[in-house]
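We modelled the chain as a single entity of 235 amino acids. Its sequence is:
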Amino acid sequence: MMSNHDTRYPKGYYKDHPKELPSSLKGFDFHAVTKTRLPGNSNRTTIFEFLPKQFKALLDGVEKTIEKAVSDATKKLKKKQRALKSELKQASEALASVEQELDETIAERDEALAKVKQLTRKPSKASEDPKKIKYLERELERIKRLFEQKNDENKKLKSQFQIDYGDAQKARTDLIVAQAHNLKLATFLSDINAALEKRGIELEDLMPETSGMISASTILSSSTTKVTTPKPYRG
């Protein structure tokens, strides 16, 4: 059975136990690590101890990671938005082309109908009129089928145009949301720095390390981070 007392290890502990090191701390330096049992928790809690320089490097790394993730997501959204705009433009052009063809087909149909009506009204030679009427009827039927085909194409393109327009609007909304999250994260990191400075932990202007240390704690992600600062000399 494991002891309830704290167990403190040097940072080299993770060289022998690399799988236990949280992925968010890989590549960062820290002072030591302590494993303890908190009241009401059967699992051991890991406390990482950072010197001010090390903690500042950790915060800078977290900020860069967040900025890169937001930048990558923003680039993907902008690329998707450009692709959707291109598709939207193509769909719009195709729609305009089909509408023009539809207008031309309607004009041909109206012209054929006018000729049929004209032949039925005026007397003509018996040998020629039936042939002309048959020809015009065939033309009318052909134009009718063409009209129906173009009309269906027009409906499909209008439907696709509406879908592409909706996708483009969604991409624009996602981009705005991502930029808002970026601003919130930047504000959050700024608040952390301000809180540490309020407690006397100057991350920008660090004091030299001494053997006597006092500790301040803050929660970072799922692990506990301890920042150690020099203890003031009492004369």
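As a brief sanity check on the tokenised model: The CA atoms of residues 150 and 172 lie 33 Å apart. Strands lie at 7-10, 32-37, 44-50, 213-220, 223-230.
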